[in-house]
Write a structure and sequence with these properties.
The chain is an alpha/beta fold. Helices cover 32% and strands 24% of the residues. It has 14 helices and 20 strands. It has helices at residues 2-19, 23-35, 41-59, 82-98, 145-148, 170-184, 202-212, 224-237, 328-332, 351-357, 403-410, 423-432, 444-450, 489-501; strands at residues 69-76, 125-130, 136-143, 152-155, 158-160, 164-166, 192-198, 253-260, 269-275, 280-286, 293-296, 319-322, 339-348, 370-372, 377-380, 386-390, 414-417, 435-438, 451-458, 468-482. The longest helix has 19 residues, at 41-59.
Length: 509
């Protein structure tokens, strides 16, 4: 009975973490919504995020389609069988993946083959610690690849763009943390949260940084200097003008938590773990006698229930309607800042698809079509039909080596993703006549609701997240952030935020 209850408890923890944001995170997002200027792209993005949070809760479906690499931190009393807990975690992970609460994210690092159940060598991550209490504490964080890729580690002393020299002192640490927010831009699905680890070695520093992400957003650091620094970072980061999704705006950082450990004299690391707004971490206490949950963490205070809006488009005055195939003339009429609403057909394509298309023909005619950088959570019903359970955008910059060439080769007119792309893609958009459309990162339920049917799939040998899905959509909203005239909102925000970052060059601590 203990084993059965334990697995059920862990499955419940996984489901809640994936689908229901904690109360402290909800309150932070509500505060950001209140502070944002009405009628802006950032305000529209925050409304979409709020809608998505409520939809995920109501539907008991993933908040974000990238359910990350599950990382468990478990504390056990003396005498508890940790091997039994490991086995129960693996069974619960496989069951949650099968039930579309998790996306199958585990791939072989050498072959790229997807295990299909989120199990494999070294995953999920499980870290055990013994303690003196008489119950099991189990924490789980689901940290997606977009924000994981914006983690950064500094070795002091260092020269930092915009801030100059960062020395081996508290002010040098300050500069590193501010720079970490700047370098993330919108690619980590801002507005986000950061955990910081000071000291240790390269691996323990990152562990310490990720450990800070389990703290409450509203707690106060027991070290007065670090508490002061945490408040300073949040205040100043929100003056950089990066904003939600990197669109500009008032909300760039929602929380900063800092931990410190000893180091050896030769090394001085500042490690930063960046987490997107979809801050999915939960924790439970479990009875070692019955395996049942006895307590949930992060339940203090008010739970914000976000009222769902009928349409996000009410935030903007004008919306451009698009349906593929799209003409070059139509594309060249679009400009940075335009909000578009897409109905009709689009095709998903991530890393494996882009690599494949560089040297192979496309399985479908892509002339005038739209590619969506998305690895959806899919589920097949008893009749064999596929259904989309979560479908937000993935970080686009990974496709920078391929995107421009593929657009020109196949005649693709629009690309949807998050975080923007670089100069090679921008040049191709201008030459070929294409646009980059920024969807709202993490809004996997909002966009899944826009998908009205799955008309087919190609290249399933790459696994569910990497296959090319044929999606039929209605009123799929995104923002033009790179146009066919050489303009890039991402480049503009990067430049202006660097100028604002430089205002914090002088010593503070």
């Amino acid at each position: 009975m203990y084993t059965e209850n334990l697995e059920k408890s862990i499955y419940t923890l996984i489901t809640e973490t994936s689908t229901n944001l904690p109360k402290d995170v909800r309150r932070a997002i509500a505060k950001a919504k209140k502070a944002e200027n009405a009628g802006t792209r950032a305000a529209m993005s925050l409304d979409t995020i709020a809608n998505n949070i409520q939809m995920a809760d109501d539907n008991v479906s993933p908040i974000c389609q990238d359910t990350g690499l599950p990382t468990f931190k478990i504390k056990t009393p003396i005498g508890v069988n940790q091997l039994e807990i490991k086995a129960a975690i693996k069974r619960a992970i496989a069951a949650a993946t099968n039930d579309a609460k998790l996306r199958p994210n585990s791939v072989d690092s050498l072959t790229g083959e997807n295990s299909g159940d989120n199990l494999g060598a070294g995953v999920p991550v499980m870290k055990f610690e013994q303690w003196e209490n008489d119950y099991i504490e189990m924490k789980l964080i689901l940290k997606g690849g977009g924000c994981e890729n914006k983690n950064i580690q500094y070795s002091l002393p260092a020269e930092l763009e915009g801030l100059g020299r960062a020395g081996r002192d508290l002010d040098g640490i300050r500069k590193c943390i501010l720079h970490s927010v700047y370098q993330a831009q919108g690619q980590g699905c801002s507005a986000g949260f950061i955990g910081v680890g000071i000291g240790g070695d390269r691996s323990s520093g990152y562990d310490l940084a990720k450990e800070q992400l389990f703290r409450s957003v509203e707690d106060v650091n027991p070290d007065a200097k670090l508490a002061e620094l945490e408040d300073y970072i949040v205040e100043k980061a929100n003056t950089l003008g990066i904003g939600t999704m990197g669109f500009g705006g008032e909300a760039t950082l929602l929380g900063c938590k800092i931990g410190v450990m000893h180091r050896i004299p030769a090394s001085f690391y500042v490690s930063v773990a960046y987490n997107c707004w979809a801050y999915r971490r939960m924790a439970i206490d479990i009875s070692p006698a019955t395996g049942e949950i006895t307590n949930w963490h992060y339940q203090d205070g008010e739970k914000i229930e976000f009222k769902q809006q009928e349409t996000i488009e009410e935030e903007v005055k004008e919306v451009v309607r698009l349906e593929a195939p799209i003409t070059e003339e139509k594309i060249r009429s679009l400009k940075v800042g335009d909000v578009v609403s897409i109905s009709g057909r689009m095709y998903t394509g991530r890393d494996a698809i882009h690599h494949h298309l560089m040297s192979h023909d496309a399985p479908v005619d892509l002339d005038g079509q739209i590619i969506y950088h998305c690895g959806p959570v899919m589920q097949k019903d008893a009749e064999g039909n596929w259904h989309v359970r979560a479908a937000g955008p993935t970080t686009s910059i990974r496709e920078e080596p391929y995107q421009g060439d593929i657009m020109k080769k196949f005649g693709i007119r629009a690309v949807i993703g998050k975080g923007g792309m670089g100069p090679k893609t921008l040049a191709a958009l201008e030459e070929h006549g294409g646009v980059y459309l920024n969807a709202i990162g993490g809004a996997a339920q909002y966009y899944a609701d826009c998908i009205k049917g799955v008309d087919g799939v190609d290249l399933m040998e790459f696994g569910i997240p990497e296959a090319m899905w044929h999606l039929r959509v209605e009123e799929f909203t995104a923002v033009v952030t790179m146009d066919s005239h050489g303009n890039s909102l991402h480049a503009d925000v990067d430049k202006s935020s660097l100028e604002k970052l430089a205002l914090h060059k002088e010593r503070v601590f």
